[in-house]
Specification:
This protein has 54 residues and is mainly alpha-helical. The model has no long low-confidence stretch (mean pLDDT 56).
């Protein structure tokens, strides 16, 4: 629970700095993933844990 809250707070701060996201393609890709994470939090975390467990 605490780890997930840290990820959510980090995604909020990264969204506020849109100029940094535009400057770096990697940052823009991260912001796109955070949007998906916010829309499907349970599915994304479940899928992520399974993918890295193997």
């Amino acid at each position: 629970m605490a780890a997930e809250r840290n990820v959510l707070s980090f995604s909020m701060t990264s969204e506020n700095s849109s100029t940094a996201a535009e400057a770096s393609p990697i940052e823009s890709e991260k912001s796109a993933k955070t949007v998906h994470h916010r829309n499907h939090p349970h599915y994304h975390t479940h899928h992520y844990s399974i993918k890295h467990r193997k």
